[in-house]
């Protein structure tokens, strides 16, 4: 079967995560079999600026199926699917809002004479690139990636499952040192304003308390009291240690998001335990003397060998992106829905993202009444009181329009 020759570009944008290289690999391998040319755009949209300025030549950006051979006897060794990060480099910040910068990007894209662009990014970076695509009349295909898993209309984004595995392993290791020293271990995890990572890893890692912005948007006195009550109950059952997972999107009592939310949780547990003890609540006496330690996992969550699921997901997404270009179905987001790879109109996705960002809420939050929350509660994990989830009630959760294909 013959395929009309096409020139397509591919880039990674936003924060890195495991599985990006597996998407690149799939796009290159699938396109090469069709006789197409693939151009890797270095460092997101900045690569287009380099082309416009003449600091990079198009021929130097061309990728091929064996473009990542290792020197020596192991010729043809294909390792991209195992590597984290992005071999193209990524860009977390840019100045595309400046007209002169946007014009350079558009000029660079034009000089490459691309028939389509595969943009791998999260909701923020896809929003920015989509705006450029509209201005330049680009044929764009979006591939969702983020350890936060907060891109709307897709059940999974590339990188999320590996991050869950990384956090789960960290919680496993923290459990044994917590038990050995009878400590309360507080693990702070990423997720931005979504709690998917904390919730999934917390359940898998045996957490006693999981704090996510959808169910504990603010660490008020009521929430701290319930956390202390959970820890006190464990101690009464002769469990002398506890594991607390807190997502970075949870806010302090002042309703603002601060760094070091893990340290704040540890501090509040101690202070509120002292208060309860003074009110003749003997079960809380001594809780303030427990050694509480905080671990901020940080950017370790963005690294690590991609899990088998992330490699499969990334590969399937990459192949779907090429198929959409071949069919002329442009301006779509590749998604994982009901165990299958589908696609959604990018204008619908970006419209929801922009609306949610304007209203300062997550575009794809954890469902407070969903299966994962129910699973945690059935295990006796404290995940917040239902009354705290007012900021993320059902009317704020976007429903996936199943009629759109």
UniProtKB/TrEMBL annotation:
Obligatory cofactor(s): Mg(2+)
Reactions catalysed according to its record: beta-D-fructose 6-phosphate + ATP = beta-D-fructose 1,6-bisphosphate + ADP + H(+)
Catalytic EC class: transferase
Phosphofructokinase domain segment(s): 7-325
Pathway(s) where this gene product acts: Carbohydrate degradation; glycolysis; D-glyceraldehyde 3-phosphate and glycerone phosphate from D-glucose: step 3/4
Active site: 148
Alphabetical keyword list: ATP-binding, Cytoplasm, Glycolysis, Kinase, Magnesium, Metal-binding, Nucleotide-binding, Transferase
Residues that coordinate or bind substrate: 146-148, 183, 190-192, 248, 293, 299-302
UniProt: Mg(2+) binding residues: 123
Binding site for ATP: 15, 93-94, 122-125
ATP-binding listed as a keyword: yes
General function of this protein: Catalyzes the phosphorylation of D-fructose 6-phosphate to fructose 1,6-bisphosphate by ATP, the first committing step of glycolysis.
Oligomeric and partner information: Homodimer or homotetramer.
UniProt-listed HAMAP family: Phosphofructokinase_III (MF_01976)
Protein name: ATP-dependent 6-phosphofructokinase
Organism field: Laspinema olomoucense D3b
């Amino acid at each position: 079967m013959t395929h009309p020759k096409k020139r397509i570009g591919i880039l990674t944008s936003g924060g890195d995560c495991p599985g990006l290289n597996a998407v690149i690999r799939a796009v290159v391998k699938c396109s090469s079999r069709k006789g197409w040319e693939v151009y890797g755009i270095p460092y997101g949209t900045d690569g287009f600026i380099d082309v416009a300025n003449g600091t990079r030549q198009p021929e130097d950006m061309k990728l091929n199926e064996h473009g990542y051979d290792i020197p020596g006897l192991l010729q043809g060794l294909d390792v991209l699917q195992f590597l984290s990060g992005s071999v193209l480099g990524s860009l977390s910040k840019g100045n595309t809002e400046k007209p002169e910068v946007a014009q350079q990007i558009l000029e660079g894209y034009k000089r490459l004479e691309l028939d389509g662009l595969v943009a791998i990014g999260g909701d923020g970076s896809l929003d920015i690139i989509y705006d450029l695509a509209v201005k330049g009349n680009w044929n764009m295909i979006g591939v969702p990636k983020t350890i936060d898993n907060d891109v709307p209309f897709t059940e999974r984004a590339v990188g999320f499952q590996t991050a869950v595995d990384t956090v789960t392993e960290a919680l496993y290791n923290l459990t044994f040192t917590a038990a050995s020293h009878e400590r309360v271990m507080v693990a702070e995890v990423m997720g931005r304003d979504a709690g998917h990572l904390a919730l999934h890893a917390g359940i898998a890692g045996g957490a006693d308390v999981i704090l996510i912005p959808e169910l504990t948007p603010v660490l008020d006195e009521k929430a701290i009291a319930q956390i202390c009550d959970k820890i006190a109950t464990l101690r009464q059952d002769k469990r002398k240690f506890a594991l607390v997972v807190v997502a970075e999107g949870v806010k302090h009592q002042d309703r603002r998001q601060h760094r070091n939310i893990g340290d704040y949780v540890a501090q509040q547990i101690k202070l509120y335990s002292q208060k309860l003890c003074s009110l003749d609540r003997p079960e809380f006496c001594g809780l303030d003397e427990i050694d509480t330690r905080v671990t901020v996992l940080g950017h370790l969550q963005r690294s690590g060998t991609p899990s088998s699921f992330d490699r499969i997901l990334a590969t399937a997404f990459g192949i779907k992106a090429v198929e959409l270009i071949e069919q002329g179905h442009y301006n779509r987001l590749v998604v994982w829905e009901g165990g299958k790879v589908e696609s959604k109109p990018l204008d619908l996705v970006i419209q929801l993202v922009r609306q949610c960002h304007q209203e300062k809420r997550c575009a794809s939050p954890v469902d407070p009444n969903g299966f994962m929350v129910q699973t945690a509660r059935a295990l006796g994990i404290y995940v917040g009181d239902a009354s705290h989830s007012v900021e993320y009630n059902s009317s704020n959760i976007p429903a996936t329009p199943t009629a759109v294909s």
